[in-house]
Amino acid sequence: MGNLKEIRVRIASVRSTRQITSAMKMVSAAKLRRAQDKILKLRPYANKLHEILVNLSQSLAEKQAENIYGRISVPEKILLVVITSNKGLCGAFNSNVIREARRLIYEKYPDQHRNGNVTILPVGKKGYDFFRKQNIKMLPDSSDLLNDLSFNNAVIVAEGIMKSFVAGEYDRVELIYNQFKNAAVQNLTDEVFLPVETCHPDESEAAMPADYIYEPTREDIIEELIPKSLKIQFYKAVLDSFVAEHGARMTAMHMATDNASELIRDLTLEYNKARQASITNQILEVVSGAEALKG
Amino acid sequence: MKVEIITPDHRVFEGDIKSIRVPGRKGSFQVLKDHAPIISTLENGPVIIVDTEGQETVFEINGGVIEVKMNRIIVLAESVN
């Protein structure tokens, strides 16, 4: 009988776990829908703006015009913006980003790392918690951004990064984040934020940049357009990661719910078997007792 | 000549057109076929599109930027009323 009770208790506990995971799945699905809407609408705008920016900074490079965001030097001082989530329970979402960040540090920038010139800017608690324990320079984390993600809040962080790039504190800024593809798939992305890249790798027109007329003046355009585009790019990265997080969590919780259901099925089968066995045993005892009495 | 008008919220317009008039920072200007490449910031004001059938469409935009390059026009507006 002890075994029976044990199984009963386990079934009950798995059942309540399933209830929780399935509720979390619902919550993530709702949040995902809302956030997904935002990113899908922002994307074309951000992509076009980026395209214009690439064209612009390319023709600027031709003319050797001053572009404070396009300063290309030997990357000595690196800033890695690691975008993770504040909460866990979303599968490999965070560990993928962290693994990529570590790969960059130890394989792409080992010399800079040795000289202590690699800095991490964590956006999201999970990345912060991980890199806090490592021997790597780190800026104060901007995890609050994820709690209240709006364009204006993202701009504050982006402006901070841009300011320190212009001031020469960093030569290169890269964003590492999960790009949202669909609810089940996230693309791990490593993107150069600054300096503004001057050529598109897969564009044939890149060979002959257009000779643009700038209105009102080139300086005004640079002053206005480049920071705007960078802010949009940064916001898009954070938003992408935010949407991907909910997608990842929804998928993870869906799996967990499925697993729980399967476990309940197995346990129920086991429970029924054990119950039947104990009934058979009891009958056997009664029958053999009666046989013995007949003598 | 292809044009796209995009805001952060949605794609407002996409298609073939004959001409487009936009509120540039230095004054309103019109873009016709084979216009020289230009990048200009835009003020608040009307964007007037004439499509291939001569039909006029007007969008009121709140600031933005236009890029014209090889008969491809992109208007990025902050918002459209």
Describe the protein in words:
- The complex is a heterodimer of chains A (295) and B (81).
- By secondary structure, chain A is α/β, with parallel strands linked by helices.
- Chain A has one domain (21-253): 3-Layer(aba) Sandwich (Pyruvate Kinase, Chain: A, domain 1), CATH 3.40.1380.
- Helices cover 64% and strands 13% of the residues of chain A.
- Chain A has a five-stranded mixed sheet.
- In chain A, a hairpin with a 2-residue loop joins strand 4 (172-182) and strand 5.
- Chain B has a single domain (2-77), classed as Sandwich (ATP Synthase, domain 1).
- In chain B, strands 1, 2, 3, 4, 5, 6, 7 and 8 form an eight-stranded mixed sheet that branches.
- The interface between A and B is medium-sized, with 25 and 22 residues.
- Strand 6 (213-215) of chain A pairs parallel with strand 4 of chain B.
CATH superfamily of chain B: F0F1 ATP synthase delta/epsilon subunit, N-terminal
Which two chains form the greatest contact, residue counts included? A-B, 25 and 22 residues
**Average pLDDT figure of chain A:** 88
Distance between the termini of chain B: 24 Å
- Our count of helices of chain A gives 7
Give the strand content of chain A: 5-15%
CATH architect. name of chain A: 3-Layer(aba) Sandwich
Mean pLDDT of chain B: 90
- Low-pLDDT sequence parts of chain A: 200-207
- What is the 3D form of chain B? globular
Q: Give the oligomer, counting copies of the same chain as homo and different chains as hetero.
A: heterodimer
Give the terminus-to-terminus CA distance of chain A. 31 Å
The number of distinct structural domains of chain A comes to: 1
CATH architecture of chain B: Sandwich
Assign the CATH topology of chain A.
Pyruvate Kinase, Chain: A, domain 1
The ordered H/E elements of chain B are EEEEEEEE
In short:
The complex is a heterodimer of chains A (about 300) and B (about 80). Chain A has about 300 residues and is an alpha/beta fold.
